[in-house]
Amino acid sequence: MQSAARITKPAPHGSGIAPGQQLLLHNVSWDAYQKIGAALADRPALRLTFDRGNLEIMTTSFEHEWRKCLLGRFIAVLSEECGVSIRAAGSTTFKKKGLKRGLEGDQTYYTKSREKVRGKKRLVMGRDPSPDLALEIDVTRSSVSRMSIYSRLKVEEVWRYDGQTIRIFLLDGKGEYQEVAESPTFPGIPIQELVRFLHMAEEADDDNDVIRQFRAWVRKHLPKKRKKSK
After folding, report:
1. Within its chain, how far is the Cα of 129 from the centroid?
2. Is residue 135 a contact partner of residue 78, using CB atoms and an 8 Å limit?
3. E strand segments, 83-175
4. Res 13 pLDDT > 90
């Protein structure tokens, strides 16, 4: 493997790659990507993104992990209260050799495709479907276009949270993402209100308190037709 590497942000002296920083390698083969991923499999604080020879290795920060976990809990509450059947896939690695692309989402979910992965402990892309919904926490901007990888993997819906707003993107018939105002997974729910609870959680000392308030808010704002069906 011949590759050139650079750290996109300076790391503190003697610390290697600090939380939230990136190492970008060029001219990495698919086999090398596979081997590096296997070697780092027991390092959950690292996130790999591969795009046609470019491999980004990013360390995740406490801020990143806390936000993704809390948003994941919000999605769990939404699925319960809105009656949406769901299969969580967490930060599973999704990759396709034919596309020469792969990544780990911050949080991923099967909704419409969940029956196709029922009972499975290992997924094989190409044979098994990509997740229907992916959550991206944009605390640190990636050097590689993760949205283009999601589109090639045909992930239908992506939420992106940058600390101030949640943007929802849907894959159109041309394989491109278009921003929309409402999530088709949770229709009628004003998703932007989740940001208010995220900010509330920053001042709280117990995530569970915020989750309880969020659940009460969801029940109050459920569309009437959903309330009647429960």
Report:
1. 16
2. no
3. 87-90, 93-96, 101-104, 107-110, 133-137, 157-161, 166-171
4. no
| Residue range 126-139, pLDDT digits in tens | 889 999 999 999 87
Q: What is the pTM of this model?
A: 0.85
Query: Minimal CA–CA distance to 35: which of 23, 45, 50, 20?
Result: 50
Task: Domain ranges for the chain, please list them.
Answer: 62-229
Q: What is the pLDDT of residues 24-43, one digit of tens each?
A: 999 999 999 999 999 988 77
3 state SS of 104:
strand
Q: Which of 102, 12, 27, 104 is nearest to 65 (CA)?
A: 104
The answer as to CATH 3.90.1570 being correct for domain 62-229 is yes
Closest by CA to 33, choosing from 54, 59, 6, 17, is 54
